[in-house]
Amino acid sequence: MTRRQWKQVVATPFAAWAALALGIGLTCGYALMGASPFKPAIALAIAACQAAVSAIVFMRLDRASALVRFAAVSGVLWLSFLFILSFCDYLSRAYPP
Amino acid sequence: MSQTGVTVREPWPDARREETGLQFAMWVFLATEVLFFGALICTYAVNRWAHPAAVREAGRHAAFAYGLANTVILTLSGLSMAIADRAVKEQLGALAKACLWITLALGTAFVVIKALEYYKDISDNLWPGPDFALRGAGARPFWSFYWVATGVHAIHLTIGLGVVARLLVFAHRGSLVRRVPSMTISTLYWEFVDIVWLFLFALIYLVGRT
Amino acid sequence: MSLILLVQASPIVLPEASTQAVVEDRIFLILLAVSAAIVLLVLTLVIGFSIVYRAGSAARRGPLPIWIRHEFEIGWTSATIFAFLFIFWWTASSQLHLQTVPRSALEIHVVAKQWMWKIQQPSGVREIDTLHAPLGIPVKLVMTSQDVIHDFYVPAFRLKQDVIPGRYTELTFTATEAGTFQVFCAQYCGLDHARMNADVVILPPADYARWIADQPEGDTLAGEGEKIFASHGCGGCHGQGAAVHAPPLDGLYGSRVPLAGGGFALADENYIHDCILLPHKRVPAGYAPIMPSFQGVLSEDQLVPLIAYIKTLKAKP
Amino acid sequence: MSAQASAPQAAPGDEPSYLDEGHSVASWIFSTDHKRIAILYAVSITVFFFIGGAAATLMRIQLFEPNNSFVSAAQYNRLFTMHGIIMVWFFLVPSIPTTLGNFLVPMMIGAKDVALPKLNLTSWWLYVGGAIFTIVCLIGGGVDTGWTFYTPYSTLYSNAAVLSAAAGVFVVGFSSILTGVNMITTVHMLRAPGLTWFRLPLFVWGIYATSLVMVLATPVLAMTLLLVIAERMGLPVFDPRFGGDPVLFQHLFWFYSHPAVYIMILPAMGVISEIIASEARRRVFGYKAMAVAMLSIAVLGFLVWGHHMFVAGMSPFADIVFSFLSFVIAVPSAIKVFNWTATLYRGEIRFGAPMLYALGFLGLFTVGGLTGLFLASVPVDVHVHGTYFVIAHFHYIMVGGSVSAYFGGLHYWWPKITGRMYLEWWARLAAITMFLGFNFTFFPQFIAGYLGMPRRHFVYAPQYHLYNVMSSTGAVVLAAAYLLPLFYLGWSLVWGARAGANPWNATGLEWLTPSPPPKQNFARTPRVDNDPYDYHEPETGPTQADQPPRQPQGGVA
Fold this sequence. Notes:
The structure holds four protein chains of four kinds. By secondary structure, chain A is an all-alpha fold. Chain A has two domains: 1-63; 65-97. Chain A contains three helices and no strands. Chain A has helices at 3-33, 39-58, 66-90. Chain A is flat, with a radius of gyration of 18 Å. In chain C, the strands form three sheets. Chain C has a five-stranded mixed sheet with strand order 3-2-1-5-8, covered by helices on one side. Chain C has three domains: 13-99; 106-214, Immunoglobulin-like; 221-312, Cytochrome Bc1 Complex, Chain D, domain 2. Chain C is built from eight helices and twelve strands. By secondary structure, chain C is an alpha+beta fold. The N and C termini of chain C lie far apart (74 Å). Chain D has a single domain, classed as Cytochrome c oxidase-like, subunit I domain (Cytochrome C Oxidase, Chain A, Up-down Bundle), CATH 1.20.210.10. Chain D has helices spanning 25-29, 34-62, 73-108, 117-140, 153-157, 162-189, 202-232, 246-280, 287-300, 316-344, 353-376, 378-384, 388-418, 424-450, 465-495. Chains in contact: A-B, A-C, A-D, B-C, B-D, C-D. At the B-C interface, helix 2 of B face loops of C.
């Protein structure tokens, strides 16, 4: 294995995993710290960062073509339609809260 | 038809195009999966919005230790799968094979731990049937989400184990390094299943912690 | 012969018996006129072109003038956008206007179940599959379902609203015509969905009052609710001098209740309904979540008078 | 129309046609050739279409009289559920994309096959397996929820075979997703050299746009059905007794089911564009606007689902938002109608059967689209929602639109697919009968709906009798018209005249190869140097109908 291969095949994924592990630590630490209204938001934000690391390094979006990147983003984009418009109903309802 | 010993299948003009095509197709499929799990998470979000306290209370009963263990295991398996993927592309067959074995082992460990957790949940009466342990609006929908989401995720993961096993068969036949497209799309699938878990971990195991 | 009878028995106009009907019909007719004009335009063009430019005809062909290729396309695109936006603005503002509910509206409760409509007048009079209401006075129907989703549909009023289990939905109308009008269930609800019909009987206010008075003497809705309140022991916790620490109900209705865990809830019918059936959903601040659920104990029929009673409890000065 | 109007552009070659590549059953049902899979789909959807149609016929017989007792309430409820499930999921959604799309997209882009041939075959197996399983449930046990599976009726109150039917539809949905993935990848990856995006025929655009919707909407349906199954198994999600919201089910369901309407109509728009251009011998007016309109319909289609829920208990604010978005999506649809009409202007119009279907489509789609404006207006929708007005509206779009286009396309490409010509006058007769029968069936339903007749009622008030008599009578005509093609198209398979490679003198790569095409589609990959629909110089008018186009796409092979 050449030095380049070592970096490419082993070192980079390990670095990414370290980032993921850090994320797990942070999110658990924050969760155990105590109640806070932003808890789910922070936990989800950390999960989203972890997902981004995984998608970029493990799933090779760093090397992917614009087309593939667009396909990767499209699911999230369309999911946002579902969330935005259904919550446009819920958040403006007098019921429940 | 072949370049550097790589087999090109029917409609494709060359191997490079085939790999790009399959990679793109897999990403399109993963977009589908995002919406599949996303719709489920939408039900969670509505429930959380309607009954924040009940969801927090219900989440307290989720087995945090099992969830954390599985999260660590799954991210490790994601790492080994990624190394296998990169190794195949660098023609490092032996390393790839070893990593695939590790992935398979970690994936199996995940399923086993999940099964143990299910056993514990059922003995704690957390299946929202007649003997359900929790009261209050929103608790049952939370646990319904738990069972559906982790169940669907476990099925995905089991399929992933099959996919990894298929790659191992190639590895034993020595043809793995020529199966770049298969390796690429299998990795994409496996990593996606990991990502889903990271969100489920946040939604199920972390909401009830204090 | 029978066809003639059939035609005679088939009116093409629907009575316009509410203020909503007038608004809806105006919009409907104008949309109809616009649509007919567009259909006519498209048909004329398609048929005209088909005849003039049929294969082998002597009509002049040649290239399209440049202004057709560009200006025309831009022109009709922007014309459609403006037309549609205008229709949207107009219908949406009519809708918003219709939705304002007068405070003085007469409240009638509707409980739907497979496959009947149960009506409870504010005076306590109960009806099944018939709803009496006064002419010219705004009426607010407060509706819920005991089982599946139904839909209360009065074609003559051009009004419908889904009736949903577990919460109250509202339908407001002001009748402009006395008479009897059909009610259909417009949301598929199972076997006898087609037979889940009712009548709305609109009476002039004086007749309505007389009709109410003629009904066999009974309690008012709130009076009936008071009995349910007593018989289910609600006062044991919520009454004065109760040993249990439970929120007092005096002046509850319409107030803003601070919630445990932050935020406020407006104590409307839905909130009180939830508190009885799903007591842990929105617990008021300062109280332990100890109230048992009355799910399966109190039916929707009983909740209507009970809530009506709770609504009458005024704050002590 | 003369079959020998033009000599085939491509040398016939010695290669056997795809039909001659084996004659055993196994050579069909395990074939990964996109053309054979298209035929497999065509046969299966035809069977399902007639089963669904039979259910509709029985319903119309019941509704002939206001208090008829031809079927019972329970049977009627099962019939409309069966009609809806079969027609939506097993006929309309797969109809054009899997038959014409499968057959033509690779040929139109100059490819040997779709990107993932094995996956294509898998899709068919899943589809047929899921559909047959569901139909057995529908006929054997019966499902009485309506195709919409609204909770809590479907999950807590119905005692029919909801669980298995939902599972079957789930599997078919999976097939639909895989088809979509396949088509998207094919269009992106396998276009012939020189075939840029704005040189694609509009049919390919239509299939591409519809595949986008399939891929991004169907998973939400799959999850929703899964949650219905879960709730039936005792995992409450939408159950109001435990704090769930039944309206949430409707949000999720319509997030799929409204875009599903566009899954059905977008490929139809593609077919119509091809037919009108070819039969009018003209370039499609505003080609780019047409392509962009299809894409924007595909995207905007995801944002308007709430107009199915104006009376469902949404917040008034959401009503207004969804009403606005619904008006917005009407704009690209209107542009398409104008552009088709303008394509006819200064054309050299032939009136073959495909063109009759296309003109019928134009009229019916316009009526269907305009009545959509009524439903997008909140005050009008509050009145006509859930009545026969809605039934009439969506049948104008789906039957008047999609089914007309499907038949039009089937006739237009029939010579290419089978190598045989159908009987022109029979085909015209069927097209005209279908158009008349259709209007006779569904126009009276607009009136009945405006007068307040609710849908899914097996008995009705006597004032709606006249309109139901008209509708049921029309349905008889319509049913006869749908049976006609079965006979004359079947006849043509054996006795029809041989078709040349390009009997209509059309542009488009699919007309370059012999009819029926060889397994590999093209002897060598074509190169594309010009726009689609190059029927004439932009600066001049159209050529005579019996002349070959100025330049077929892909040049001279």
